Amino acid sequence: MSRASWRRAIARGLAGAALLAGVAPVARAQGAAGPGLDPAADPAMSATLASLPPYQAGPRVAGTIRIWGHGSPTHDFVGDLVRRWFAGFHRSQPDVALDYRMYGTASAVGALATGAATLAILGEEISPDAQRLFRRARGYAPTEVDVANGSRDANYFDYAHMIFVNRANPLTGLTLRQLEAVFGAEHRCTRRNLRQWGDLGLKGDWARRPITPYAWKTDVDFALFFRERVLCGSHRWNPATREFMPVTRPDGTVVQHGQLILEALAKDRYGIAISNIRFANPAVRALPLAWRAKGGFTMADPASLIARTYPLGRIIPAYVDVPPGGHVGPAEREFLRYILSREGQQALAEASGYLPLDRASQTRALAVLR
Amino acid sequence: MRRPGRIGPLVLASALLLAPALLPAPAGAELAPPQPMRPAGTLVIATSAALAPALRRAAHRFEAAHAGVHVLILGQGSDVAMARLYTGQADAAVIGRDASDNEIKAYAWIYGHAPQAEALGAGSRATPGLSPALAVIVAARSPLRAMTLEDLRQALATAPGPFHIVMPDAQSGTGRFLRHRLHQDAAQFYWPRVREIAPPAPGQAGRDGEIDRAIATAVAADPKALGFAAAPRRPGLRVLPIRAGGRLLRPADRDYPLRRTIMAYRPVGAQPLLIAYLACLRGVFPPAS
After folding, report:
1. SS3 A205
2. Contacts of residue A106 in chain B, CB cutoff 8 Å?
3. HSE on the CB side for A176, CA within 13 Å?
4. Cβ separation of B20 and A80 shorter than 8 Å?
């Protein structure tokens, strides 16, 4: 490529950061904005953001951050967010370039493990397969830095898992361990499986009725979070579980599994289901959940998800490659410090569907970077 | 043609200043795949540690026959091999299993299409690490003489039943192969009947052999056990043939249904040199069915 054509490429906004990284020119996928929220309109969110310390630039650093992660061929879920992060960061750290490669979560950890990426921001928690891949390639675990909380109900922004029963069901709430006993078969963290509604305290006609669980297909990414958080890492689900996958209709439209699950539950008085409120119908009801019996039962809302008092909220992690005894790369460290700052979390709340970290989560994440 | 490294400082500075404004580019533009940066005549093949020696021997023969060609074999594991392929660091991944759905998705979301999959040959009959065929094993005193694939599926998934199943971890590569061949990829078994032998952590030596030995030991001690493992040669065990199409098929048979395949994954429209190297690998492995 001639000097003139490189200049043209730069002018078109296609080559800059990639040029610096010594890789091919990078174009960007469609800049579809996330369902940005108005933090000022939500008291929990505005209070959270106000509690976070602003970014204080560290020592001047240089280099190219090669970022892989959440995206897809058709939706650039976090393009606007990353642009805002980098623009804010770049004012304090002008010697850092960004090579943007958000092809999707499926390739992010592989890219980090093989050195193609220096920073991976996933769209969901890391899978056991991705952890194994990294360990096999590098001989140690990737270093995790939480950068956001998942959404309550925004598609593509890692919405919370919610537990539903038929509206006729009188159950008032469930703990995480009760969920394991209902949906699992191995009861790794509890004493026994629960298979009848009477096991959960329901009386009368309910007591001897078997519980029928409904869930996403149990070995796809969507269900891995539940497996890790609720089933204590066991892949042995209750064999009675009815599994659902998204269905493509003849006209090409896709019906999400979450909707199919709740449609099935609406017809089954004795069912219990994992889904999300975005798919709810009048015949089903979401249950309050608690981490443990003595804790408070809560529904999923921005406040409970940010404070992590709701047990099935999601966490959005970033990963960096830090060998044992080593340190996070200076440019990546500084960029992550910006992402975790008030400015970074404000941008996250405005330009994506994610929820910000609260002060406690931010402090834990910053501790990883020290 | 100028290389990027020779661009003047003014352009580099412009790029630095423009970088924030470049993200993202105009709507509708596509994120370009990573571009391999390898010298001409160099092939990088990523594979598993077990397959790497055979691929290196083939590479030496190939280099001897093709002057100026260098074939680099990276044997870190099948999952790492697929990652090197989709990040553009390898020209092909040669692995002893089918790529997982997530690996195909990772590639397809970068390149816009799935990688070209090519069967290079059959896995070994019983060598741990070299994609051995899965034998159905029972204790020598078991009354069973043969089973169909449907018999085996029902033994795994249906309650009640007379068998105790002993198998590799259902989420391991071998477990997935078994679920694919017997159970339409379903993840749900009748768990009270199933004992899984978990793989050790990555990097631990002899992992496949250890799992097979553990399964064989458990089956030999239990006349009701039905195990899935690389065919072990040890007293107290029998390998059950699989009945299919009026025939009794054994692990050494070419069309044995639990025989595995060595696969190559590469870009569609790969360079002729890569095609030629992969073609020479076909002579390394027994023919696939």
Report:
1. helix
2. 102-103, 105-106, 109
3. 21
4. no
- The answer to whether residue A35 scores a pLDDT higher than 70 is no
* Residue A14 pLDDT: 29
Nearest residue to A107 (alpha-carbon basis) of B176, B108, B31: B108
Mutant choice from A12, A14, A235 vs B, greatest count of B C-beta within 10 A: A235
Specify the number of domains making up chain B.
2
Which residues sit opposite A355 in a β-bridge?
Answer: A149
Contacts of B278 (CB under 8 A, 6+ apart): B92, B94, B118, B120, B264, B266
* Host domain of residue A59: 31-151+315-369
Residue B157, pLDDT score: 82
Cα A270 to Cα A186, A193, A238, B104, distances in angstroms: 22, 17, 15, 38
The CATH number of the domain where B80 resides is what? Answer: 3.40.190.10
CA distance to A344, B96, B169, B178, B197, per residue, from B174 (Å): 44, 10, 8, 6, 11
Mean pLDDT (whole number) for A21-29: 31
Interface test with B, best of A14, A23, A26 (most B CBs within 10 A): A26
- Do B93 and B176 lie in a common domain? no
- Rg (C-alpha) for chain A, rounded Å, is 22
The pLDDT assigned to A22 comes to 29
CB contact under 8 A, A20 and B187: no
Same domain, B266 and B241: no
Q: Is residue B263 over pLDDT 80?
A: yes
pTM: 0.87
CB contact under 8 A, B79 and A86: no
What confidence category does residue B201 fall into, taking pLDDT thresholds of 50, 70 and 90?
Answer: low
Question: How much is the ipTM here?
Answer: 0.87
User: Is residue B26 included in any domain, yes or no?
Assistant: no
Please, what is the Cα angle at A183 between A180 and A189, to 5 degrees? 20
State the residue range of the domain holding B57. 34-123+261-281
Instruction: Identify whether residues A126 and A46 lie together within a single domain.
Output: yes
Q: How high is the pLDDT of residue B288?
A: 77
CATH number of the domain within which A60 lies: 3.40.190.10
Q: Each residue of B135-149: pLDDT tens digit?
A: 999 999 999 999 999
Q: Is B213 part of a structural domain of the chain?
A: yes
